[in-house]
Amino acid sequence: MGRCSLPTLLALLAGCSTLDYYAHLAQGQYALLAAREPIAKLVAAPSTDEALRAKLKLALEARTFASKSLALPDNGSYTDYADVGRPWVLKNLFAAKEFSLAPVEQCVPIAGCVAYRGYYDDRRAQAEAERLKREGYEVYIGDVPAYSTLGWFDDPVMNTMLRWDDDELVGIIFHELAHQRLYLPGDTAFNESFASFVEHEGLRRWQAARGLPAAGNARSVRAEQFTALMLRLRERLQAIYDGGQPDDAKRQAKAQAIETMREEYRALRDGEWQGYSGYDEFVNGEINNAKLLPFGLYHALIPGFARLFVAAGDDFPAFYAAAETLSKADPDTRQQTLDMPTAPAP
């Protein structure tokens, strides 16, 4: 989890009190841009590893499809490749209060307030996490395989994007280009759910156009079921936090809700998933409000955007226009529109 849309270099406009942090972001972004190589050149080079060549060719095909079939920006992004020398490009630090599922936001110029803080240096992320924990916050650090500079730079395909299967690579490219198409400063949930919907619908169309099996393979089904499990936990916790119980009673109820989730997960893993244990490390580790934040940010509003897409006639340009109009509404209207339940069939 972990994609991000924070245009890091723009944050250099902030005050000097955080200059060291922003200088490290500038250095990381510069190093990434300096590592870029044209994909076409790498594909043509005899020395390029065959597995890498195949992935890069796929990335170029997805890049072309994104603009021609999904009406996403047609620019130099994802036509270069960069190896950052590690399995993640950024570490995202999330923080939340003990009885809240609202993120502790970080505000920067142009990008607005976002629900996380990104780090190119793991040690910096860990040090800030420890500081926040001492202040009583719950924290979570997640790996980021890709992020968008919102069109300010030509973002490259990175080695961090090639770790999973072809669908994941194609989906990431659609997701990050969606951020370039529409980005609302200060509303992370809107931005990430919008991009996630474009990713999912774009991938469905990509698969159909290439005669590939539709999404619904074992990996994607497990991912959807796991996300649903985490969203149910968020709902249970929100009900607890909204209640009028004393703090000690809330802590006990919170712990029980988390244990219930773990029991449900084990039943799913040992039953329908036939022993697949890929999420064990996540579930068995510390579960707190901060760790649950990405699920709300990246997934909670997807059904609302799906309804908006249907209302736009399943047409991407019309959908983008409707989403842009919605982005200009006040926050309560946006939330109500995207949260509105589907009307029952007549």
Q: Would you write up a description of this structure?
A:
By secondary structure, this protein is mainly alpha-helical. The protein has helices spanning 19-34, 39-44, 50-70, 122-134, 166-181, 188-209, 218-242, 247-270, 280-284, 289-299, 302-311, 316-327, 331-339; strands spanning 3-4, 37-38, 80-82, 90-96, 106-108, 112-114, 117-119, 138-144, 146-147, 157-158. The chain has 13 helices and 10 strands. Helix 3 packs across helix 5, helix 6 packs across helix 10 and helix 11 (302-311) packs across helix 12 (316-327). The protein has a 3-stranded mixed β-sheet. The chain has a 3-stranded antiparallel β-sheet with strand order 7-4-8. Strand 5 and strand 6 form a beta hairpin. The chain is globular, with a radius of gyration of 20 Å.
Quick summary:
By secondary structure, this protein is mainly alpha-helical.
Low-confidence stretches: 5-17, 342-346
Order of strands in the sheet with most strands: 2-3-10
The percent range for strand residues is 5-15%
Q: Please give the count of helices.
A: 13
Order of helical and strand elements: EHEHHEEEEEHEEEHHHHHHHHH
Structure class: mainly alpha
Spatial separation of the terminal alpha carbons: 38 Å
Query: Which quaternary structure do these chains form?
Result: single chain
Provide mean pLDDT, rounded. 90
Percent helix, as a range, is: 40-55%
Biggest sheet details = 3 strands, mixed
Cα Rg = 20 Å
